[in-house]
Amino acid sequence: MKPKHGQLLYQGKAKRIFQSDFDDQVLVEFKNDATAFNALKHQEFEDKGRINCQISAHLFEMLESQGVPNHYLSLAADCWMVVERVRIIPLEVVIRNIATGSLCRETPIKQGDELLPPLLDFYYKDDQMGDPLLSEARLEKLELLSEKDRLEIERIAFRVNLLLQSFFEKLDLTLVDFKLEFGINNQGQILLADEISPDTCRIWDKRIRDSKERILDKDRFRQDLGGVINAYGEVLKRIQGVSSTPRICS
Ligand code: 5GP
After folding, report:
1. Which of 31, 55, 94 to mutate to test the pocket of ligand 1 (most atoms within 8 A of CB)?
2. What is the C-alpha separation between 67 and 69, in angstroms, rounded?
Protein backbone atom coordinates (compact mmCIF):
# COMPACT_ATOMS: atom_id res chain seq x y z
CA MET A 1 0.00 0.00 0.00
CA LYS A 2 1.22 3.46 -0.92
CA PRO A 3 0.41 6.31 1.49
CA LYS A 4 -0.77 9.68 0.20
CA HIS A 5 2.29 11.83 -0.39
CA GLY A 6 3.37 15.11 -1.91
CA GLN A 7 6.17 15.86 -4.35
CA LEU A 8 9.39 13.90 -4.61
CA LEU A 9 12.08 15.81 -2.72
CA TYR A 10 15.07 13.49 -3.09
CA GLN A 11 15.86 10.29 -4.92
CA GLY A 12 18.60 8.17 -3.34
CA LYS A 13 20.00 4.75 -4.27
CA ALA A 14 17.86 2.84 -1.77
CA LYS A 15 15.26 5.40 -0.70
CA ARG A 16 13.00 8.15 -2.00
CA ILE A 17 11.94 11.12 0.12
CA PHE A 18 8.55 12.78 -0.42
CA GLN A 19 6.82 15.82 1.00
CA SER A 20 4.05 14.99 3.50
CA ASP A 21 1.03 17.06 4.55
CA PHE A 22 3.14 18.71 7.24
CA ASP A 23 6.04 21.09 6.62
CA ASP A 24 8.27 19.56 9.28
CA GLN A 25 7.68 15.92 8.26
CA VAL A 26 8.67 13.90 5.19
CA LEU A 27 7.83 10.41 3.96
CA VAL A 28 10.61 7.92 3.25
CA GLU A 29 10.02 5.08 0.79
CA PHE A 30 12.45 2.16 1.11
CA LYS A 31 13.19 0.75 -2.34
CA ASN A 32 14.06 -2.79 -3.39
CA ASP A 33 17.21 -1.60 -5.16
CA ALA A 34 20.58 -2.70 -3.85
CA THR A 35 23.79 -1.01 -4.97
CA ALA A 36 27.42 -1.59 -4.12
CA PHE A 37 30.85 -0.31 -5.14
CA ASN A 38 29.57 3.21 -5.66
CA ALA A 39 26.54 1.96 -7.63
CA LEU A 40 28.68 0.07 -10.19
CA LYS A 41 26.79 -3.03 -9.05
CA HIS A 42 22.99 -2.85 -8.96
CA GLN A 43 20.19 -5.36 -8.46
CA GLU A 44 16.61 -5.36 -7.22
CA PHE A 45 15.55 -7.73 -4.45
CA GLU A 46 11.84 -8.28 -3.93
CA ASP A 47 10.81 -7.37 -0.36
CA LYS A 48 14.11 -5.69 0.57
CA GLY A 49 12.41 -2.29 0.96
CA ARG A 50 9.82 -3.63 3.37
CA ILE A 51 12.33 -5.61 5.44
CA ASN A 52 14.76 -2.67 5.78
CA CYS A 53 11.93 -0.28 6.61
CA GLN A 54 10.61 -2.56 9.35
CA ILE A 55 14.09 -3.23 10.80
CA SER A 56 14.88 0.50 10.82
CA ALA A 57 11.56 1.31 12.51
CA HIS A 58 12.20 -1.27 15.26
CA LEU A 59 15.77 -0.03 15.83
CA PHE A 60 14.84 3.68 15.81
CA GLU A 61 12.08 2.97 18.36
CA MET A 62 14.50 1.00 20.54
CA LEU A 63 17.04 3.85 20.38
CA GLU A 64 14.35 6.45 21.09
CA SER A 65 13.29 4.49 24.19
CA GLN A 66 16.90 4.82 25.36
CA GLY A 67 16.92 8.58 24.77
CA VAL A 68 18.78 8.68 21.43
CA PRO A 69 17.36 11.62 19.42
CA ASN A 70 16.39 10.43 15.94
CA HIS A 71 14.23 11.48 12.99
CA TYR A 72 11.81 8.51 13.05
CA LEU A 73 8.17 9.32 13.84
CA SER A 74 6.13 6.28 12.71
CA LEU A 75 5.56 3.71 9.99
CA ALA A 76 3.16 4.80 7.23
CA ALA A 77 2.96 1.48 5.33
CA ASP A 78 5.04 -1.67 4.77
CA CYS A 79 7.98 0.14 3.19
CA TRP A 80 7.19 3.72 4.12
CA MET A 81 7.98 5.71 7.25
CA VAL A 82 7.26 9.22 8.45
CA VAL A 83 10.31 11.10 9.70
CA GLU A 84 11.10 14.58 10.93
CA ARG A 85 12.46 16.82 8.21
CA VAL A 86 16.17 17.43 8.72
CA ARG A 87 19.03 18.95 6.77
CA ILE A 88 21.34 15.99 6.27
CA ILE A 89 24.97 16.69 7.17
CA PRO A 90 26.97 15.20 4.24
CA LEU A 91 29.01 12.89 6.44
CA GLU A 92 28.97 9.13 6.89
CA VAL A 93 29.89 8.18 10.44
CA VAL A 94 31.26 4.64 10.54
CA ILE A 95 31.82 2.67 13.74
CA ARG A 96 33.74 -0.59 13.66
CA ASN A 97 33.85 -3.27 16.37
CA ILE A 98 35.58 -5.95 14.29
CA ALA A 99 38.05 -5.25 11.49
CA THR A 100 36.85 -6.07 7.99
CA GLY A 101 35.85 -4.29 4.75
CA SER A 102 37.64 -1.11 3.73
CA LEU A 103 39.61 -0.99 7.01
CA CYS A 104 41.45 -4.18 6.04
CA ARG A 105 41.83 -3.16 2.39
CA GLU A 106 43.35 0.19 3.32
CA THR A 107 45.48 -0.65 6.39
CA PRO A 108 47.51 -3.64 7.65
CA ILE A 109 44.91 -4.28 10.38
CA LYS A 110 44.00 -7.94 10.18
CA GLN A 111 40.57 -9.26 9.16
CA GLY A 112 38.56 -10.26 12.24
CA ASP A 113 40.65 -8.30 14.79
CA GLU A 114 38.52 -7.02 17.64
CA LEU A 115 38.61 -3.23 17.85
CA LEU A 116 38.52 -2.12 21.47
CA PRO A 117 37.74 0.70 21.85
CA PRO A 118 35.69 0.74 18.63
CA LEU A 119 36.97 2.86 15.73
CA LEU A 120 34.95 5.87 14.59
CA ASP A 121 35.67 7.45 11.20
CA PHE A 122 34.07 10.27 9.25
CA TYR A 123 33.67 9.94 5.48
CA TYR A 124 32.60 12.75 3.16
CA LYS A 125 29.24 11.72 1.66
CA ASP A 126 29.70 12.24 -2.06
CA ASP A 127 29.12 9.43 -4.57
CA GLN A 128 31.16 11.07 -7.33
CA MET A 129 34.17 11.32 -5.02
CA GLY A 130 33.57 7.77 -3.72
CA ASP A 131 32.80 8.86 -0.11
CA PRO A 132 36.43 9.67 0.84
CA LEU A 133 37.75 9.05 4.37
CA LEU A 134 38.35 12.36 6.17
CA SER A 135 41.23 13.22 8.45
CA GLU A 136 40.41 15.42 11.46
CA ALA A 137 42.15 18.33 9.70
CA ARG A 138 40.09 17.86 6.52
CA LEU A 139 36.87 17.58 8.50
CA GLU A 140 37.69 20.85 10.25
CA LYS A 141 38.64 22.52 6.95
CA LEU A 142 35.32 21.52 5.34
CA GLU A 143 33.42 23.49 8.03
CA LEU A 144 30.39 21.19 7.78
CA LEU A 145 29.74 21.35 11.51
CA SER A 146 31.00 23.04 14.64
CA GLU A 147 33.42 21.36 17.03
CA LYS A 148 30.56 21.11 19.55
CA ASP A 149 28.30 19.34 17.01
CA ARG A 150 31.10 16.98 15.97
CA LEU A 151 31.61 15.95 19.59
CA GLU A 152 27.84 15.52 20.02
CA ILE A 153 27.67 13.29 16.92
CA GLU A 154 30.59 11.18 18.18
CA ARG A 155 28.91 10.85 21.58
CA ILE A 156 25.59 9.75 20.02
CA ALA A 157 27.32 7.35 17.60
CA PHE A 158 29.25 5.57 20.39
CA ARG A 159 26.06 5.34 22.45
CA VAL A 160 24.16 3.90 19.46
CA ASN A 161 26.95 1.34 19.12
CA LEU A 162 26.62 0.22 22.75
CA LEU A 163 22.82 0.02 22.53
CA LEU A 164 22.78 -1.83 19.20
CA GLN A 165 25.55 -4.19 20.31
CA SER A 166 23.69 -5.25 23.45
CA PHE A 167 20.35 -5.47 21.59
CA PHE A 168 21.88 -7.68 18.86
CA GLU A 169 23.77 -9.76 21.42
CA LYS A 170 20.44 -10.96 22.81
CA LEU A 171 19.43 -12.04 19.30
CA ASP A 172 22.65 -14.05 18.81
CA LEU A 173 23.84 -11.44 16.31
CA THR A 174 27.26 -9.73 16.20
CA LEU A 175 27.33 -6.07 15.20
CA VAL A 176 30.56 -5.90 13.20
CA ASP A 177 30.36 -2.32 11.93
CA PHE A 178 27.82 0.20 10.65
CA LYS A 179 27.30 3.58 9.04
CA LEU A 180 25.16 6.37 10.49
CA GLU A 181 24.00 9.68 9.07
CA PHE A 182 22.92 12.72 11.03
CA GLY A 183 20.76 15.73 10.27
CA ILE A 184 19.74 19.00 11.88
CA ASN A 185 16.02 19.73 12.41
CA ASN A 186 14.20 23.07 12.26
CA GLN A 187 15.01 23.69 15.93
CA GLY A 188 18.74 23.22 15.28
CA GLN A 189 18.83 19.87 17.10
CA ILE A 190 21.12 17.09 15.86
CA LEU A 191 19.13 13.94 15.07
CA LEU A 192 20.22 10.48 14.00
CA ALA A 193 18.72 10.09 10.50
CA ASP A 194 18.76 7.85 7.39
CA GLU A 195 18.27 4.13 8.19
CA ILE A 196 19.75 1.33 10.29
CA SER A 197 19.44 -1.95 8.42
CA PRO A 198 21.47 -4.79 6.88
CA ASP A 199 22.20 -2.34 4.04
CA THR A 200 24.11 -0.09 6.42
CA CYS A 201 25.40 -2.53 9.07
CA ARG A 202 27.54 -5.65 8.99
CA ILE A 203 25.79 -8.32 11.07
CA TRP A 204 27.06 -11.86 11.69
CA ASP A 205 25.00 -14.79 12.96
CA LYS A 206 26.57 -16.13 16.18
CA ARG A 207 24.82 -19.48 15.60
CA ILE A 208 26.90 -20.14 12.47
CA ARG A 209 30.70 -20.61 12.43
CA ASP A 210 31.34 -20.54 8.69
CA SER A 211 32.73 -17.11 7.81
CA LYS A 212 30.56 -16.74 4.70
CA GLU A 213 27.40 -18.47 5.88
CA ARG A 214 27.19 -16.30 9.00
CA ILE A 215 26.90 -13.05 7.01
CA LEU A 216 23.41 -11.48 7.33
CA ASP A 217 23.97 -8.15 5.56
CA LYS A 218 24.79 -6.42 2.29
CA ASP A 219 28.11 -8.26 2.05
CA ARG A 220 26.02 -11.18 0.71
CA PHE A 221 25.25 -8.97 -2.29
CA ARG A 222 28.71 -7.34 -2.48
CA GLN A 223 30.42 -10.76 -2.48
CA ASP A 224 27.79 -12.59 -4.61
CA LEU A 225 27.03 -15.03 -1.79
CA GLY A 226 23.31 -15.34 -2.63
CA GLY A 227 20.53 -15.58 -0.04
CA VAL A 228 20.34 -11.81 0.45
CA ILE A 229 16.63 -11.67 1.28
CA ASN A 230 16.74 -14.76 3.50
CA ALA A 231 19.54 -13.14 5.49
CA TYR A 232 17.77 -9.77 5.85
CA GLY A 233 14.54 -11.62 6.73
CA GLU A 234 16.35 -13.57 9.46
CA VAL A 235 17.49 -10.32 11.08
CA LEU A 236 13.92 -8.97 11.00
CA LYS A 237 12.50 -12.23 12.37
CA ARG A 238 14.85 -12.19 15.36
CA ILE A 239 14.09 -8.53 16.08
CA GLN A 240 10.33 -9.16 15.86
CA GLY A 241 10.77 -12.00 18.32
CA VAL A 242 11.75 -9.57 21.09
CA SER A 243 10.01 -6.30 20.31
CA SER A 244 6.50 -5.04 19.75
CA THR A 245 5.19 -3.94 16.34
CA PRO A 246 6.42 -0.42 15.41
CA ARG A 247 3.77 2.31 15.69
CA ILE A 248 1.78 3.18 12.57
CA CYS A 249 0.75 6.74 11.80
CA SER A 250 -2.95 7.41 12.16
P1 5GP B 1 33.36 -0.18 4.73
O2 5GP B 1 34.05 1.15 4.96
O3 5GP B 1 34.07 -1.32 5.35
O4 5GP B 1 33.01 -0.39 3.28
O5 5GP B 1 31.92 -0.07 5.47
C6 5GP B 1 31.83 0.01 6.86
C7 5GP B 1 30.37 -0.09 7.27
O8 5GP B 1 29.66 1.08 6.86
C9 5GP B 1 29.62 -1.26 6.64
O10 5GP B 1 28.67 -1.74 7.59
C11 5GP B 1 28.92 -0.65 5.44
O12 5GP B 1 27.72 -1.35 5.15
C13 5GP B 1 28.64 0.76 5.93
N14 5GP B 1 28.77 1.74 4.86
C15 5GP B 1 29.84 2.51 4.55
N16 5GP B 1 29.60 3.30 3.50
C17 5GP B 1 28.34 3.04 3.12
C18 5GP B 1 27.50 3.56 2.07
O19 5GP B 1 27.87 4.45 1.29
N20 5GP B 1 26.25 3.02 1.98
C21 5GP B 1 25.82 2.05 2.84
N22 5GP B 1 24.57 1.57 2.67
N23 5GP B 1 26.57 1.56 3.83
C24 5GP B 1 27.83 2.05 3.98
Report:
1. 94
2. 6
Q: Render 3-31 in DSSP notation, one character per residue.
A: -----EEEE-SSEEEEE-SSTTEEEEEE-
| pLDDT tens-digit readout, 98-149 | 999 999 999 999 999 999 999 999 999 999 999 999 999 999 999 999 999 9
Report the topology of domain 87-226: D-amino Acid Aminotransferase; Chain A, domain 1 (3.30.470)
pTM of the model: 0.97
Q: Which residues have any ligand 1 atom within 6 Å of their CB?
A: 92, 94, 101-103, 131, 177-179, 199-202, 218
pLDDT single digits (tens) 215-243: 999 999 999 999 999 999 999 999 999 99
Q: Which atom of ligand 1 is nearest to the CA of 179?
A: 8
Per CATH, domain 8-84 is 3.30.200.20: yes
